[in-house]
């Protein structure tokens, strides 16, 4: 019976064949242990010399790391194994022998591993990270589908910036200037006016010359946009969504979290509702903690976000930022024009902002004023103003950074491990 490692629990005490790679191997005079991986998981294969032909035992002892094989054996329960099973090997067929595989079980430097990212992905740790990333993506689709959202795909090439900044990747679009998308938000607002509640999931690009452990040049964003939803309801949807992601990973990625050594007790308490703190109160909190460098009207940096997060054991919303430091499309608080109806969601344990969201301006007159104040090209953004001219409604949305969320849930030190092939300031290979 041909199967995969993830399915061996169905075949206890039966003989199966698995296509796999040799992740590692050790042997003594009488027994050989093969660490097998097939993409779905890892399992140990055991070959006892006294129970097999001498030729098979010698073949097993000679297997090299990352050699591809078909392994046949009896599935046995094994409580010592993280998987709960092992394979009593009865035959090994070599598909392709790997010679001098560069990533050995010894410790390697980060640059070496990044240069060999295409191979480093095969390791047990990286396998676990990618499985957690996949679970977050799966749970994202499940959450939004179950809550009446429609998936819409915004363009990657755009003629304008969503944020009105200069940190864009420029390219030529035939005879016009174009840019790689920073965000699909503006297009998602148009989709929300047609379909009510929508979400996108796609790549975004930021030409920031940053080398911090939280930044990537290319990353993936989940961006919901919702008609007839105002600020407070927007926050409630965000905290429900994030809680759903965390609980889904806890339920479906126990082995992967264990492999990464993640303290799951910190994740188990992540359930809506989340605490909220206004920007005003966050400034006061920082001053009380000795951060005299930050003044009202300035944006928070990583140390400030970490200090605020340490006052809570849950993700925390920082709401009502100053109008002057936020994007042109955010709606002012009706009671205070100097702040907007927005929030950043800060993850615990020093992982920083994972969501930015706001209620959007729905008044065409105010939006025109914002165009002028931000020196935006009225012709280029005319279509965006049309959304306010023809049946404008209160609407809100947010963007969740997938990689930062993976880093937090998986407990990773650096964001570069959260994406299969990271694009960093000085890295475009492999």
Let me know the largest β-sheet: 8 strands, mixed
What assembly state would you assign to the polypeptide chains in this entry? single chain
Task: Tell me the name of the CATH homologous superfamily of the largest domain.
Answer: Bira Bifunctional Protein, Domain 2
Q: What's the total number of strands? A: 19
Strand proportion, as a percent range, falls in 25-35%
**Poorly predicted spans:** none
* Overall CATH architecture of the largest domain: 2-Layer Sandwich
Give the rounded overall mean pLDDT.
96
User: What is the name of the CATH topology of the largest domain?
Assistant: BirA Bifunctional Protein, domain 2
The tally of domains stands at 2
Alpha carbon gap, first and last residue: 37 Å
Computed Rg: 26 Å
Q: Note the overall shape.
A: elongated
Helicity level: 25-40%
* Number of alpha- plus pi-helical segments: 13
Strand order of the largest sheet: 7-11-12-19-18-17-14-13
Secondary-structure content class: alpha+beta
> In the CATH hierarchy, what is the class of the largest domain?
Alpha Beta
Structure, briefly:
The chain is of the alpha+beta class and 430 residues long. It contains 13 helices and 19 strands.
List the helices and strands and how they pair.
Blueprint: E1 2-3, E2 15-27, E3 31-37, E4 42-48, H1 54-61, E5 68-77, E6 85-96, H2 110-115, H3 117-120, H4 124-146, E7 150-151, E8 157-158, E9 170-173, E10 176-180, H5 185-195, E11 197-205, E12 218-227, H6 231-252, H7 254-259, H8 265-268, E13 276-278, H9 279-288, H10 302-309, E14 316-319, E15 332-333, E16 336-340, E17 342-347, E18 352-359, H11 364-373, H12 382-389, E19 395-401, H13 402-410
Parallel strand pairs: 1-2, 4-6, 7-11, 13-14
Antiparallel strand pairs: 2-3, 2-5, 3-4, 5-6, 8-10, 9-10, 11-12, 12-19, 14-17, 15-16, 17-18, 18-19
């Amino acid at each position: 019976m041909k199967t995969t490692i993830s399915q061996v629990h169905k075949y206890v005490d039966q003989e199966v064949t698995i296509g796999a790679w040799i992740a590692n191997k050790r042997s003594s005079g009488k027994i050989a242990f093969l660490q097998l991986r097939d993409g779905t998981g890892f399992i140990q294969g055991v070959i006892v010399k006294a129970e097999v032909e001498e030729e098979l035992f010698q073949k097993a002892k000679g297997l090299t790391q990352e050699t591809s094989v078909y392994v046949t054996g009896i599935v046995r329960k094994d409580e010592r194994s993280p998987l709960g099973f092992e394979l009593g090997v009865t035959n090994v067929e070599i598909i392709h022998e790997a010679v001098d595989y560069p990533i050995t079980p010894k410790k390697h430097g980060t640059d070496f591993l990044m240069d060999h990212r295409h191979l480093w992905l095969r390791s047990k740790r990286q396998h676990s990270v990618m499985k957690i990333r996949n679970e977050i993506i799966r749970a994202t689709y499940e959450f939004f589908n179950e809550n009446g959202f429609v998936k819409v795909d915004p363009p990657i090439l755009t003629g304008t910036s969503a944020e009105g900044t200069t940190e864009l990747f420029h390219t030529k679009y035939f005879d016009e200037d174009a840019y790689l998308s920073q965000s699909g938000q503006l297009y998602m607002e148009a989709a929300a006016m047609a379909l009510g509640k929508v979400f996108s999931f796609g790549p975004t690009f930021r030409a920031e010359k940053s080398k911090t452990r939280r930044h990537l040049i290319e990353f993936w964003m989940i961006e919901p946009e919702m008609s007839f939803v105002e600020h407070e309801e927007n926050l409630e949807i965000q905290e429900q969504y994030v809680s759903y992601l965390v609980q889904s990973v806890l339920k479906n990625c126990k082995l992967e979290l264990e492999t990464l050594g993640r303290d799951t007790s910190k994740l188990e308490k992540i359930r809506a509702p989340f605490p909220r703190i206004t920007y005003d109160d966050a400034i006061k909190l920082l001053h009380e903690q000795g951060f005299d460098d930050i003044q009202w009207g300035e944006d928070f940096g990583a140390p400030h976000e970490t200090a605020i997060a340490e006052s809570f054991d849950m993700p925390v919303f920082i709401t009502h930022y100053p109008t002057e430091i936020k994007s042109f499309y955010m709606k002012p608080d009706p009671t205070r024009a100097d702040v907007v109806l927005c929030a950043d969601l800060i993850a615990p344990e020093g992982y920083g902002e994972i969501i930015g969201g706001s209620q959007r301006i729905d008044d065409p007159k105010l939006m025109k004023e914002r165009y002028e104040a931000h020196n935006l090209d009225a012709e280029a953004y005319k279509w965006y103003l049309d959304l306010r001219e023809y049946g404008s409604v209160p609407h809100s949305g947010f963007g969740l950074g997938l990689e930062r969320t993976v880093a937090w849930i998986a407990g990773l030190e650096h964001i570069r491990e959260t994406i299969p092939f990271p694009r960093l300031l000085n890295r475009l290979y492999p």
